[in-house]
Write a structure and sequence with these properties.
This protein is of the alpha/beta class. It is built from 14 helices and 7 strands. About 50% of the residues lie in helices and about 10% in strands. The protein has a 5-stranded parallel sheet, with helices on both faces. Strands 6-7 form a two-stranded antiparallel ribbon. The termini are far apart.
């Protein structure tokens, strides 16, 4: 029996449709499988938002990059200030996401006080180049929202000028690409158990990231007195600059805090090799730019790399590497910072900081 041409075309169309649907189903299932295998059961960002949303109320939050996670220990600060605080830091947290965290803290917990850790590495950082950190933060943030708010937030993220129309942004739909744990066996075991089985490498309930590691110090570090000579002879040195987009995000953060009556204190956490990697002149310029920017909105910026050594000196044994404190270092720094903030309520503390030469 001869099949008419229209019938042939109809069958071919149906076959193509079945093929497309089958491919789509296989593609989705494969993505789900890869997410199950590689996406962490409870990654650092997911932990931060989970424990944050479990809090009834908070007075104070800390926001910023991994320096924030490892340097600010909420219970040590709270013991001095009598506050209820939480560490909302995250790896490579952009200034944009610090602002998002502050808004969430204000709207969800009624927070009226913020300590913002300014990591100089983030001054010129491009959000698209750090897409893994950006997408991980966004996905974790969305996980605690209602379906409607989650969809709204996702649409906002995908249409953000920093990502919209750029090829890499497609990976947002494939979490295993940007948020993955290569320890597949332990990850799967935790997912099947529905709980964390190995507490090492996880935050505590206050958002702090503990560590007992003690770094092996470098052969030498640069003092401000040695910085100019070092800059002239170093094989590699980084010139700092605050990008326009990052400056705009800092302005948004400062203006939001002023508008909402939130007390914002911006700080930089001390670390041993700051003058070994950054040129003195551009560091001074960035430091002044940050001071002026926050002052314009009535807030203070304190760079604890330049605090008088008679007031505070960080021991090298208090670091797990050149950029991050361990638990002992965080305990000491947090106690000092709490006392500093308490004194700053009635005193001008700017005289404690030594101008760079």
């Amino acid at each position: 029996m001869r099949i008419s041409e229209p019938e042939v075309k109809k069958r071919q169309g149906a076959h193509r449709a079945v093929t497309c649907v089958s491919f789509l189903v296989i593609f989705v299932c494969l993505n789900l499988l890869l997410n199950f295998l590689f996406e962490p059961f409870l990654g650092s960002g997911a932990e931060m938002w989970k424990y944050f949303r479990a809090k009834d109320s908070l007075d104070l939050v800390y926001v910023g990059s991994s320096q924030c996670i490892s340097a600010l220990k909420p219970d040590a600060v709270d013991a001095v200030l009598g506050t209820r605080s939480y560490n909302m830091g995250s790896n490579m947290q952009s200034f944009h996401n610090s602002c998002l965290a502050v808004k969430a803290a204000a709207e969800e917990k009624g927070v009226k006080r913020v300590v913002f850790v300014v990591d100089y590495e983030m001054l010129g950082s491009d959000r698209y180049e750090n897409f893994r950190a950006e997408a991980s933060f966004e996905k974790a943030y969305e996980s605690g929202l209602s379906p409607f708010l989650r969809l709204t937030a996702a649409c906002g993220f995908l249409t953000d000028p920093a990502f919209f129309g750029k090829p890499g942004s497609v990976s947002y739909f494939f979490p295993w690409v940007y948020d993955r744990d290569m320890s597949i066996r332990s990850n799967v075991r935790e997912k099947l158990a529905g709980r964390v089985l190995d507490e090492s490498g996880h935050r505590d309930a206050e958002g702090f990231y503990p560590s007992d590691e003690i770094m092996v110090p470098d052969d030498f570090y640069i003092s401000p007195a040695q910085a100019k000579e070092w800059d002239a002879t170093a094989a590699q040195i980084i010139d700092l600059s605050l990008s326009d987009s990052n400056r705009a995000d800092l302005v948004k953060l400062a203006s939001y805090c002023r508008k909402e009556g939130i007390e914002l204190t911006a700080i930089s956490v001390p670390y041993p090799n700051w003058l070994r990697i950054y040129s003195l002149d551009t560091y001074k310029k960035a430091q002044q730019e940050l001071t002026d920017l926050f002052a314009e909105y009535g807030f203070s910026y304190y760079d604890f790399n330049t605090v008088d050594s008679s007031y505070y000196t960080a021991a090298l044994t208090g670091y797990k590497d050149n950029g991050h404190m361990n638990t002992a270092g965080a305990e000491a720094f947090s106690r000092m910072l709490a006392a500093f903030l308490k004194e700053a309520e009635t005193e001008d503390m700017s005289g404690l900081f030594v101008p760079l030469g």
